[in-house]
Design goal:
It is a single chain. The protein is α/β, with parallel strands linked by helices and 633 residues long. The chain has 14 helices and 36 strands. An eleven-stranded parallel beta sheet has the order 1-2-5-8-11-14-17-20-23-25-26.
Length: 633
């Protein structure tokens, strides 16, 4: 009897222990709470959380659950915590973003090293990445084995890999960035180590990163294949070191054709004057390519560099663009239809630069800055989720209790369809809100991110969002105007003249409200891309996906003039002194008149093209808009 009781007691204890320790299996914490086999079946966003508030407790479980060769991109959100896991991301996992809560909060760690259980360097990783088209953001990958020999934190061999705001911590061989056909992009990252802590055969660009040496040794050990044009490229990076470190080489060649270049990098005093080491091989001095351009800091003096290293010329430096570095024979586009390493942000069209450009010809010009206006409240929201980022909108409305629904104006910024941002239209939006309107300024995708018709879809989705949230802001969904300047004016006109036409709306939109508007205000926005009065060229071609000779149907499709019909709305045109920005306006007004639609025109005889950004034209523009809308509504 005692034996039976003891047996029961032992069994109960074992059951309690088993139930208290979470198992690391793909069905350990499924999203719906039901225990079942999820291996290779999940194709939606996933949350990993150690505290049980997510879909899985372990990252490894989430990896096993992801469907192979996903039909659409997903995000694996890894919540704050220290995850001691040795991870392998197989080649069948693609188009996934792994996002943490920040490199100080989401930490992936392990402690394998060479010599442990007969392990070699390439098995000592904390994370091994074989998959392609993967992005890692806001997390740390580390190997805590210490000074015991080679101990890899990240072993990456997939293609089209992006690491943004990630930390890589370890000692010797922290990062194995390798793979003959692998292209890797590191942005705003921190990488630390002792010896050869960035090594391998990949083509990798490190941009705006901190490279931290923990001992006197070597930073890089590239093994670039002979046929690869670029190896490791460091641009605008900062090279730092621990306090006692004072003799560090930029690199040594692991293999004969190593290629490593530092461009515009700040180098601490720990970098040795000679800069580079030949790893004891005179022959490698003839075959490697080590170069610098614009190095600064106490370690950036090139006067003592080894004779076989290169100082790039200005023309050579210009060749080190992302497009050139990452050129390859495989896909260049991500699942979001822009380059996998990200799209460029063109900030050339901005208020300050425009002011300095025009003040010579217009001495009395005054920029209108984006400052608060008494009596106007604002709210910033995300109106559209693109998967890789959100598009935002600033909504402005009169303060106080609203006893009646207010008319609404959505303002679209200009910038040649490739530059500018929503803040440019904020001063005008606030001034109109002061007059009793609900107004909004919005993000939309520019040509460097996504070509036409993405921007049109975004504007229509913004209109839908505002109507869907009308009760929140007291707006009248039957009095919605679209307004824009320059490229934003062209977009506004096209949106206004395509009311109700599904082919101009996003097929993937989750907004159910109507995208129709009831009035148009076009400030210097072209109405016909191909027209005797038009001079649109390369900038328009970039947005429209080709020249008129290449895609004439797209140029016409994107021209508001050719879309005027019985769905046209009352239109206000405010013109600068430059006729080319009014291309097709007279023809459009004739068409509107044929359909019995009101149109009104005002112009400034002497003003810059973006007159709405400056006084003295700013105030008159507000008056024209207010008077027009009061008239038609």
């Amino acid at each position: 009897m005692m034996f039976n009781l003891k047996s029961v007691w032992v069994i109960c204890c074992l059951c309690w222990i088993a139930s208290s320790v979470p198992a690391q299996h793909v069905n350990s914490y499924p999203k719906d709470g039901k225990v079942r086999d999820l291996k290779g079946k999940v194709q939606e966003d996933i949350v990993v959380a150690k505290d049980g508030t997510g879909d899985f407790l372990y990252i490894a479980d989430a990896l096993e659950a992801i469907r192979v060769y996903l039909p659409k991109p997903i995000t694996v959100y890894i919540k704050e915590g220290v995850y001691k896991e040795k991870l392998e991301i197989p080649g069948t996992i693609t188009n996934v973003t792994f996002k943490g809560d920040g490199p100080d909060k989401t930490i992936i760690t392990y402690d394998d090293h060479t010599g442990k259980d007969y392990m070699d360097t390439f098995d000592s990783y904390t994370m091994l990445v074989w998959g392609n088209s993967l992005t890692f953001k806001d997390l740390t990958i580390q190997n805590t084995a210490g000074s015991v020999g080679q101990a890899v934190a990240l072993h990456a061999e997939g293609d089209r890999l992006v690491f943004e705001n990630c930390h890589f911590k370890g000692d010797q061989d922290t990062m194995f960035a390798s793979g003959e056909n692998s292209r890797q992009y590191y942005k705003d990252c921190y990488i630390e180590g002792t010896t050869d802590f960035i090594f391998g055969s990949a083509t990798a660009l490190f941009e705006d990163c901190e490279i931290h040496s923990k001992s006197n040794s070597y930073i890089t050990a590239a093994s670039t294949p002979e046929w690869v044009k670029y190896g490791y490229v460091f641009k605008d990076c900062k090279l730092t070191a621990a306090g006692e470190v004072n003799r560090v080489y930029l690199g040594r060649p692991w293999r004969d054709f190593a290629k490593t270049v530092f461009i515009n990098c700040e180098m601490g005093a720990h970098i040795v004057p000679e800069g580079w080491h030949n790893w004891g091989s005179k022959q490698k001095e003839q075959t490697t390519f080590y170069g610098e351009y614009g190095s600064t800091g106490l370690g950036g003096d090139d006067s003592g560099r080894v004779s076989w290293a290169h100082q790039l010329t200005g023309e050579e430096e210009k060749l080190y663009t992302k497009a050139n570095i990452f050129a390859g024979n495989t896909a260049q586009k991500s699942a979001y239809d822009f380059p996998w390493y990200g799209y460029e942000i063109d900030s050339s069209f901005n208020l300050e630069d425009s002011y300095y450009k025009y003040k010579k010809d217009f001495p009395g010009i005054e920029p209108v800055y984006n400052t608060p206006i008494e009596g106007v409240s604002d709210n910033t929201i995300a109106y559209k989720d693109l998967g890789y980022r959100s598009l935002k909108m600033d909504v402005f409305f009169p303060e106080g209790n609203r006893t009646k629904k207010l008319p609404t104006i959505l303002l679209v910024h200009g910038g040649g369809w490739r530059s500018g941002d929503r803040s440019l239209q904020a001063p005008m939006a606030k001034a109109l809100a002061k007059r009793g309107y609900v107004t909004a300024v919005m993000d939309y995708r520019l040509s460097l991110e996504a070509p036409y018709p993405a921007g049109v879809h975004d504007v229509k989705d913004a209109i839908k969002w505002m109507k869907a949230h009308a009760e929140n802001y007291g707006l009248d969904t039957n009095r919605v105007a679209i307004m824009g300047g320059s490229a934003g004016g062209q977009l506004a006109a096209l949106v206004a003249m395509t009311n109700g036409r599904q082919e101009y709306e996003s097929p993937s939109s989750d907004q159910e409200a109507s995208a129709s508007v009831h009035a148009l205000i076009d400030m210097d926005g072209v109405l016909a891309f191909h027209h005797p009065e038009s001079s649109e060229g390369a900038v328009a071609a970039q947005w429209l996906g080709g020249t008129y000779e290449e895609v004439p149907e797209i140029w016409d499709e994107a021209s508001a003039l050719h879309q005027v019909g019985d769905g046209g709305v009352p239109s206000l045109f405010i013109n600068s002194q430059y006729p080319r920005f009014h291309a097709g306006q007279d023809d459009m007004i004739k068409k509107l008149d044929e359909f019995g639609v009101y149109a009104e025109v005002h112009g400034f005889e002497a003003c810059p093209h973006p007159f709405w950004l400056f006084r003295p034209w700013f105030g008159d523009t507000i008056n024209y808009v207010d008077s027009f809308l009061q008239k038609v509504w």
